[in-house]
Amino acid sequence: MSKVSNRTKIATALVGxxxxxxxxxxxxxxxxxxxxxxxxxxxxxxxxxxxxxxYFDQAQDMLFEYGSVADERESLKSYNDYVASLVADQQKTMxxxxxxxxxxxxxxxxxxxxxxKMVESLEQFVxxxxxxxxxxxxxxxxxxxxxxNTAEVTLAEKYRLILDAYSIEREYGSAVAVNQGKxxxxxxxxxxxxxxxxxxxxxxxxxxxxTGWMYNPQTKGWDKxxxxxxxxxxxxxxxxxxxxxxxxxxLPIPAAETAQ
Length: 260
What we know:
Structural class: alpha+beta
Order of helices and strands: HHHEEEEEH
Strand order of the largest sheet: 1-2-3-4-5
Strand content: 5-15%
Radius of gyration: 61 Å
């Protein structure tokens, strides 16, 4: 009886151990699944975090690039505005130049008749003026008249030469000069020194200094000077030639014409 009981107890014990072992195996399987799931969740979270970090970095790079592009856009806009202002100013300048070019023809139409009139007036002036350097002055006018009809010379050059001629005539008004030449008196030519005090008076003296004359603008002839003026005339001629020291000399001058 006792032997059976002991065997029974041993069998019961073995069944219990097997049952417990079986129970541990059943419980162990769900726990392992939970641990595996948790590991997968952590792995997925880590992967997701990597993606988040990646997208964040990309977003930061894009934001920085956007800022750079925006700054560049503003810079380009400012530069374009500056260039546009320059272009507008250049256009105004070009329009002004074009207007000047368009006005050249009108200017030419006004200048050409003016130049002809200036040369004509100069010719009349030389003819009416005291007859000093007559040949030189007449030839200058003649050359100007020929020049006006020359196509090879520019309009500007023609105008400049006319002004030069006027400038020379103006300087004659304050010049004291002596020129040797021939004076025709009573059908005879006499070699004389012509002495002009600007445009105030014109005198002539024979080379032997024994006879002197003064030009009379009213009669267009020569009046003989009194012998008392010969010494003064000689002094004036010597001063004009820089052969004598500056000094005062007294000579008669033609009476001023009465205005009509």
